[in-house]
Amino acid sequence: MLNRCIDEGPRNIILDLSAIDFVDSSGLGALVQIVKKAKTEGGSVQVVTNARVTQTVKLVRLEQFLSLQPSVEVAIANVEKT
């Protein structure tokens, strides 16, 4: 579904994972693929997380690539800058 959204627009997506307690390797892999596709199409993905998800992402050193944000408001501000 997100792939279709990237294909058809909008190109910039905010994915709010702040209510998620756990993300595993397959979830991280899916996020990486979504971000790659968005970047290829000239867009971006801002990922809103909580402390647990952020910790998991940092363990695999993807925090910069996945553009983690502390809130939806910060993510919106980042999208508006582009």
TrEMBL record:
Residue stretches spanning the membrane: none
Q: Which InterPro entries match?
A: STAS_dom, STAS_dom_sf
Pfam families per record: STAS (PF01740)
In this chain the STAS domain maps to: 1-82
Query: Example GO molecular function term?
Result: anti-sigma factor antagonist activity
Q: Which PANTHER family match?
A: ANTI-SIGMA FACTOR ANTAGONIST TM_1081-RELATED, ANTI-SIGMA FACTOR ANTAGONIST TM_1081-RELATED-RELATED
Listed name of the protein:
Anti-sigma-B factor antagonist
